[in-house]
Amino acid sequence: GFQMTLQELGTIMQFGADVKIMILNNRFLGMVRQWQELFNEKRYSFVDITSPDFVKLADSYYIAGKRVSERNDLVSSLEEMLNHKGSYLLEVMVTKENNVFPMVPQGCSVSEIRLK
């Protein structure tokens, strides 16, 4: 997830880069949870995580940000992000149980990709 690369917020700040960041936050280690659902009979282990406040974290790097929790606010928030001069972090809260496809199952090759 984003926490594996969030140190790059420092790079964005240092170089004044104009980067738009959108986090789809399902409050899970999503791919791990998805594998456990599909291949391990829903035996979930260590996938429900607590995240920092990403908007406050972005602010600490002088990057503007906003969290969206309501679908009705998404379009206006995207427009706000895209029209903002400078870097911007938009955190979009999404349903916890959404799966992401296509995916390559663990231990498989790309030729065995799953579409659902």
Task: Please tell me about this protein's structure.
- The chain has 116 residues and is an alpha/beta fold.
- The protein has one domain (2-112): Rossmann fold (3-Layer(aba) Sandwich).
- The protein is 30% helix and 15% strand.
- The protein has four helices and three strands.
- It has helices at 8-15, 30-39, 54-60, 74-83, and strands at 20-25, 64-68, 88-93.
- A three-stranded parallel beta sheet has the order 1-3-2, with helices on both faces.
- The two termini are 21 Å apart.
Describe how the helices and strands are arranged.
Blueprint (H helix, E strand, L loop, with lengths): L7 H8 L4 E6 L4 H10 L14 H7 L3 E5 L5 H10 L4 E6 L23
Parallel strand pairs: 1-3, 2-3
In short:
13% of the residues are buried.
Key descriptive features of the protein:
Rossmann fold; alpha/beta; three-stranded parallel β-sheet; 116 residues
Name of the CATH superfamily = Thiamin diphosphate (ThDP)-binding fold, Pyr/PP domains
Main sheet record: 3 strands, parallel
Identify the overall geometry.
Answer: elongated
Cα Rg: 17 Å
Oligomer: single chain
CATH uppermost class = Alpha Beta
